[in-house]
Amino acid sequence: MTSSDAHLSRDERRRRTESTILDAARELFADAGFERTTIRAVAAQAGVDPALVMQYFGSKEGLFGAATRWNGEHESILTATSDTLAAAAIDDLLSHFEHADDREAAVALMRNCLTHPTALAAMRDQVMCERKEAVAAAIEGEDAQLRAGLFAACMVGLGMVRYLIKLEPVASASPEALHRLMEPALQALLAAPAAAAPGPTDPS
Amino acid sequence: MTSSDAHLSRDERRRRTESTILDAARELFADAGFERTTIRAVAAQAGVDPALVMQYFGSKEGLFGAATRWNGEHESILTATSDTLAAAAIDDLLSHFEHADDREAAVALMRNCLTHPTALAAMRDQVMCERKEAVAAAIEGEDAQLRAGLFAACMVGLGMVRYLIKLEPVASASPEALHRLMEPALQALLAAPAAAAPGPTDPS
DNA sequence: TTTGACGGTCAACGCGCGTAGAGTGAAATG
DNA sequence: CATTTCACTCTACGCGCGTTGACCGTCAAA
Question: Chains A, B: CB contacts under 8 A, how many?
Fold first, then answer.
């Protein structure tokens, strides 16, 4: 950060530094999780003083919130029809976790969503809920909400097992193989319930 | 822990105390995660001095390892045939997370498997790997390992969404509804790859 | 009855963390 | 040029954590 930015204007330099800190934070939050990541480590990786991180983001919480912001644009699932839902969901997963710029942010959010309140809330109330509604809207039937939720659960499981737990051979499977094997299963989940139990879903 | 156990023999009293500590640890690890759970809090909940916890388990790591031990007995998936796999897997999930005595242990393991090295290793190398092999052995075909892994991923996703993220209506759905909706999807995952893509449908 | 082992407690240490506030020097402003 | 603004650093505080070793009372063995 002290090499080739002496010519930049003040606020551009500031934006640059802020973004460097955010990148460092994303990487560490994604790799080690919230609790095991220290402000000092983020600052060191960004080549900056720890106090500056506090000054910019207010607190470690603030830094985490700024670093793990889910980018819901370009989600093909939001515009999919009932028979392209499965493929769209897999495409979205791959794009978020493999080619996207915000890959680290997605990993960081997912890594921490079981242990960090903010990440949990974001995961449930933003990421999952919105996508679940999109799926539920695209299918019909009495169990639409539940089926959409289970659909989301399978996608979450796939993401966690592939990108965080890294269970082989799921972690190294090709996108084509994922599409080929997962799509029929997801479509079975979305298909109208044949004729099993009558009556609505009743929690016992 | 000082009420009605004065009459117990020394080593039985010791075992009782140890188990009380383990119960407290499981509950806190399951609710708050490893990092947010303090030895002091575990000791307080067990009605015991923090130093005793160290004396028994050596370290916080040791306590965590002892508290989150996966109980792989009575798993019906290990003896299932290819067409009962899906039902067996759902039954196992329900039994581990709802009526089992080690429910807290299962939740604790799952809650921490994304952020704690020991929990991650246990999850991947014990829990998932063993069950994945059982599934792979019960089905045939070229992608048996991958399909078994994706099967496991869906089950992990279901568990996390239902018991940790608690996304509605998945969290409150009845066991019957889970069976009814998930089984067809899981079976589609295990079925031999039909003829969707120009893929190598493997003859035996 | 003496003696030792052992379940359990007490007080404290040292470290690393998040955080705060004063300070510095260069860029913007007039 | 004088002044202000602002990105950034330095130093340090206070707290809570995991962990330790000395200590106490009681039960079992000799």
Answer: 191
Total number of domains constituting chain A = 2
Q: What is the pLDDT of residues A35-86, one digit of tens each?
A: 999 999 999 999 999 999 999 999 999 999 999 999 888 889 999 998 899 9
Residue B200 falls within a domain, yes or no?
A: no
In angstroms, the Cα distances linking A109 to A36, A94, B187 are 15, 16, 31
Domain's final residue, options A31, A46, A67: A67
- Could you list the residue range(s) of the whole structural domain that residue A49 is in? 10-67
Token pair of A21, please?
């800190």
Asked if residue A59 and residue A92 are part of one domain, the reply reads: no
- pLDDT-flagged residues of chain B (< 50): 1-4, 195-204
Query: What is the number of residues in chain B?
Result: 204
Burial environment of residue A56 by CB neighbours within 10 A (0 to 12, 13 to 18, 19 or more): middle
Half-sphere exposure of A148 (CA within 13 A, CB side): 24
* Residues whose CB is less than 8 angstroms from the CB of residue A4 and which lie 6 or more positions away in sequence, other chains included: none
C-alpha torsion A128→A129→A135→A140, nearest 10: 140
Helix (H, G, I), strand (E, B) or coil at A32: helix
Handedness of CA A27, A39, A128, B152 (dihedral sign): positive
Please list, in sequence order, all residues whose beta carbon lies within 8 angstroms of the beta carbon of residue B82, skipping any fewer than 6 positions away.
B138, B139, B190
Least CB–CB distance from B185: residue in A178, A180, A189: A189
Mutation site, B93, B114, B155, B190, interface A, largest A CB count within 10 A: B114
Cβ distance A177 to B146 less than 8 Å, yes or no, reads yes
Alpha-carbon distances, residue A153 vs A104, A156, A158, B82, B181 (angstroms): 21, 5, 9, 23, 13
Q: Would you say residue B202 lies in a domain?
A: no
Q: By the CB < 8 Å criterion, does A153 face chain B?
A: yes
Residues A168, A129: contact at Cβ < 8 Å? no
| Contact: B156, A155; criterion CB under 8 Å | no
Query: Strand ranges (DSSP E) for A38-89?
Result: none
Please give the Cα distance from A124 to B71 (Å, whole number): 29
Of B145, B147, B173, the CB nearest to A201: B173
